Amino acid sequence: MLSYTGHPFVDVGVATITAFSRRTDPSRVSEEDLRTVARYIEDNYTRNPLRSFLTVAFTSNAWFVQDAYNPDKPDLTDEERLKRRAARRLWADRHLYSWVQPALENSPDTCVFTGQAAVGSALSGKLAAGRAGRAQIPLLQGDDNINFYPGGDTGVPVSGLALLCLQAFPLGCAKVAGSLLAVHADDNRITYRFARRNLDRNRRAVSVAQQSNSDKLEEEKHSLKTLLIGTLLDLQRERDDGGDEGGAPSSVTAYHVNNGKTPKLDMYFLPMEVSGFLRKVTSARYRADWDGLVSRAWQQPPKPSGKAKTVGPFEPRRNYLYEDVLALPSDAAKFLRQYFLRFALRWARGDDPRGGYSPLTEADLVSWDLTELFLKEVLRMDPGRIDSIRRLADRLGTYVSNENDRRLFRTLLSERRYWSLRLALIRADLSAVQHGKEPLITFDQFVEIFEEGEEVPRRDWTLARDLILIRMIEQLHAYGWLARNVAEIGDVSSLVGDEDGVASAVD
User: Fold this and answer.
1) Which of 2, 209, 409, 418 could make an S-S bridge to 457, C-beta 3.0–4.6 Å?
2) 3-class SS at 195?
3) Distance from chain centroid for Cα 118
4) What pTM value is reported for the model?
5) What are phi and psi of 174, to 5 degrees?
6) How many domains does the chain have?
7) CA nearest 409: which of 368, 375, 363?
8) What is the reported pLDDT for 106?
9) If 0-12 CB within 10 Å is exposed, 13-18 middle and 19+ buried, where does residue 210 land?
10) Helix 418-434 and helix 461-479: axis angle, to 10°?
11) Residue 195 domain-assigned (yes or no)
12) What is the per-residue pLDDT across 228-253, written as a single tens digit (0 to 9) for each?
């Protein structure tokens, strides 16, 4: 009876109804399950906190909020109250129970979402029977606006099942900044898990608000981006801990929707390569390294002001690593340099922990294993190039440790000019050979890592340099060399590249 359609709003509603029914497969949802959901909506949408809040989904023209149908308005006669209750019940039946009523006879209209017959009754005083408008489907035009509709026929045909799913849709969303955050994925299991999490939280919040006579539905405490990535990772951990490794990576799209007086939609997209990376960082192999980076990315408490020596209780709203995940893969080099290599952000605000990052004092957070996963999943880097970078970094790390070559290490940290970096590596290679050691780098390996062709630097040569540093720092930390030489190497906070914190690709 119930199935996913590919439309994000309808599918979130499908997932919400499925979760409400304590099922995981929408095809297992029964008619009685649908009636239970409809009764919950009828009972709770008509009173606060949902009555006032859900105008962000269905506008103030929604059946449950229209003042003309409100039987609890003061100074009404008993007859007026009865009429209003009857009118509200009529519109509730049309929105919530049309799936059990006869479809529109002899109508060529079929639901744009399900392909089923359109409902058999009018959903608005201005729309033809079987058609829905902005009070039923968020972000449509007004009921009397004929623009952009085929043939000037306002509204879109909708079936009873799709209509119930759309009514349930807000319950499967998070409340963020006064609007709805819906999450839809190619993998329906991800859509379901987000909807289930939001449904459970919303039902608890509704119950608490009603018991305390509050008109407000509690907001999420975290910022939108932090909430989105944090929830995705939490759901993945639950799946890992439950022994469900999941299927192939899936793209994920989040919709921040407000359908009120000023309609607004912001979209956030996680492509498959990024969601695939996030799917793996929660596994046993990577979790400890990843959690270390996450813990150092939370917003910091404000500093005491005036004569105060302490500040009150503080709960961070954002995690900067989570926020920056949504800029991947386009900002991959910057992300890698900041979080994996631990270079400080020069213009960080007072509550931004990235201003205190350091590859020397936080070497315990530098992980080649995690970096290699990032290269494979997000950047899709050729495995042969990754292996060449690792082998070169291992030889350079051993050389720096054995020869105590702080100058070479500092040059790798700070040099922005390709030719100077190239010369430094050549000198180190010559020095190793002169001391009877094997060459640090071969011609073919150097070209594979740093150059498009002989003496033509790759545009991503700084990325290759950063990757070498990540592996070297991990190795030098393990050798104990970094701890012995931090003071001599000096402050590296001034060694960041240009204004975006990443050195120029070619100098």
Assistant:
1) 418
2) helix
3) 35
4) 0.90
5) -95, 150
6) 2
7) 363
8) 61
9) middle
10) 40
11) yes
12) 999 999 998 887 776 666 567 789 99
